[in-house]
Amino acid sequence: MGLGGISIWQLLIVLLIVAMLFGTKRLKGLGSDLGGAIKGFKKSVSDDSGSAENLATHHQDIDKNRELSHNKA
Predict the structure, then answer these.
(1) Which residue blocks in the chain are alpha helix, DSSP H?
(2) Bridge partner residues of 3 (DSSP)
(3) How far is the CA of 43 from the CAs of 31, 39, 48, 52, 56, in angstroms?
């Protein structure tokens, strides 16, 4: 028994049928496109976390400047 009652042989047959229907070149292109999309998503998420930290620091600086200007007045 495999995943959820599907045996390894049933999975292999399904994969063979999919490969015959779409062709290996199209599946290879689909896989590389999917990989590129995942890499782009990971890069975007890591860039966003860095910019979120910069934004938080910027807001803290603004708050400090407001406090200083209120203390002077």
Answers:
(1) 8-22, 24-72
(2) 6
(3) 18, 6, 8, 14, 20
Tokens of 54: 């910069």
Phi and psi torsions of 6, nearest 5°:
-100, 125
Query: Would you say 57 and 64 are in contact if contact means Cβ atoms under 8 Å apart?
Result: no
Q: What is the pTM of this model?
A: 0.45
Give the pLDDT confidence of 9-68 residue by residue, as tens digits: 999 999 899 889 988 888 888 889 999 999 999 888 887 665 656 666 766 777 666 666
CA–CA distance, 7 with 12 (Å, rounded to integer):
9
CA 41 to chain centre: 4
Q: Are 1 and 9 in contact (CB under 8 A)?
A: no
